[in-house]
Amino acid sequence: MKYIRYAFWAVLAVVLICVSLANRGPVTLNLLPADLAELLNFQYSATVPVFIVILGGIIAGLLIGFVWEWLREHKHRAAAAQRKTEVKRLERQLKKTQNERDKDKDEVLAILDQSA
Hints:
By secondary structure, the chain is mainly alpha-helical. The protein folds into two domains: 1-72, no CATH class; 74-116. The chain contains five helices and two strands. It has helices at 2-22, 34-40, 50-72, 74-101, 107-115, and strands at 26-30, 45-49. Helix 1 packs across helix 3. The two termini are 40 Å apart. The chain crosses the membrane at residues 48-68. InterPro entries: LapA_dom (IPR010445).
């Protein structure tokens, strides 16, 4: 399974390198449309290779998706933490009850009851 993972990452790296080499042409990115930039007197643009725009879009999409899922699953994580706390509390209560039950018994019989 480890080799399949390495093969996947190698193929992905080759594909990304090929896409990057095939899309080296420059492109100008503007922060705002030209009319709005003139109106606000704020114009920012950058000239970058196309592959940076492509890979940046992929990375931004992945990050937005990860954050969205993390926020969406918050209620499940909170419920799991609450259940974990409840289980620990019940285990402590069970141990206390067993100790109270076994305080008058012989040590050997108490150990046998605990193992069953």
